[in-house]
Amino acid sequence: MTQPASHSLVRVERFDEPGLAHVAELVLDRPESLNAVSTAMAEAIRDATSSLAADDGVRCVVLTSSHPKAFCVGADLKERNAFTDADLVQQRPLARSAYGGVLALPMPVIAAVDGFALGGGFELALSCDVIIAGEGALVGLPEVGVGVIPGGGGTQLLVRRVGWSKAAKAIFSAAKMPATEALGMGAVDEVVPAGRARDRALELARAIAANSPVGLRNAKRAMRLGSDVDLASGLEIEDACWRATAFSGDRKEGVAAFAEKRTPNWPGR
To answer: What protein family is recorded (predicted)?
Structure first.
């Protein structure tokens, strides 16, 4: 069973099941528009991620869709077709805060992608730490085909995932890639049977959430902050995050539980 907390156009659900008690599911819930990101939906994503980031009880987030055939088709182009230049300028900070909110979540985040994940929809997935895709999923950054560029982090996140040349080919061609092709280039991390991405993501989230919440957050922080600096600087970042973890209540409990051959009861501090 789940306990939903409603936001406009998204849902945040928590689970009663013990193994998933520290997992939150962030559900994109604008099915009539295939989860196209309108101004209102961007605001809902921003608010939901802000709330999740502040929740110390959440050890892992799974980003899913309420539509079985679409994760998210990107920006709401019908809405934008009526925009003036001033409207577009006004919307921009809000859009950035929505995608940035997913990227900035301090705990591990898994995207469960079935169906279409295009443009801003794929950028939402790229903002997560792990992407699980169902067979039949179609992903890509086709923005140059409609006269813009990826603006939800795609030009940066895809390069960091797959390297310059593969990202360049995908972005410049506006290609829509099947899940198996995306897996081959490293744009997604795992492909499962169609319709099973959410199940697999929750299975992985269960395994992640069994671990130290302090350790999870500091490991992610070390990885994120260290990924774009030289090795020596990265090792200093790692050391700072190690120190923040090594003298925590979680470290003491983890060592004690190992010695006593029992499951840790993480204090999370």
So the answer is: Belongs to the enoyl-CoA hydratase/isomerase family.
